[in-house]
Amino acid sequence: MILYNCPPSGNCYKVRLFAALSGLELSVRDVDLAAGEQHQPWFEALNPWQQVPVLHDGETVVWDSQAILIYLAERHQLWEWWPQEPGARARVAAWLSVSGNEIQHGPADARLVRVFNAPLDYPHAVASAARTLETLEKWLAEHPWLEGSRPTLAECAAYPYVALAPEGGIALDAYPAVRRWLAAVEALPGYVAVDA
Question: Does pTM top 0.70 for this prediction?
Answer without folding.
Answer: yes
